[in-house]
Hints:
The chain is of the alpha/beta class.
Amino acid sequence: MTGIRLLDFSHYFGSCRALNRVNLEVEKNEILGVIGPAGSGKSTFLRSLNRLNDLVQGSRTEGSVEVDGRDITRPGTSLVELRRKLGMVFAVPVPLPRSIYENMAFGPRLAGVRNKERLDALVRDCLEQTALWQEVKDRLNTSALKLSGGQQQRLCVARVLALKPDYILLDEPTSGLDPVSTMKIEDSLRRLKKDYTIVLVTNNTKQAARVSDRTAFFLTGELVEVGPTERIFTAPSDRRTEDYISGRFG
Length: 250
């Protein structure tokens, strides 16, 4: 089933066109890898899915973005509901200056969850999904700022899960992490795929090859091609994709 569909979607910042007539579908319970050089429109595409680009002055769009059959570009769309449905994880982990437990419980409390047993179960479940529970279960009341960079990023993923999204959007989630932490994040994504739809923007083409079911290649705001990851990396349809993957540019 198709979860997200972009139809002739373009995005402008003032007079600058960052995305040009993109047509793309994201299937339910897949990991879609998004690759391309700097300035190709990857992050603009990702932030269009939950309308974070609206926060940039001069931002405007053409075409449509459908999430579960509803055009989210239309006036009247609840951005709070949309951003809860499409949780976002950024390149730099930003834990709250609170305990590990409070980082996890903060969002659910705002959403109305007050029962302590329910909160405890939710915290444990989300930390287990990101393989962090065993590492932090004995220090839930210590500051999240004392965690390593990789642990902080997994905490941020778990914090998104606590709000029960349908989609997880990741913008370079391992760009500043060591190989071991990167591997743990990737292992978590493979496990999460059975319950969530994941869009992963990455400058690491090897990472896209490792974890993505399908891969989309963007260049100067255009979607050059999208397809099964194995085909994109072994027999791309467009010469520009091959040149990028082989390191001829980018």
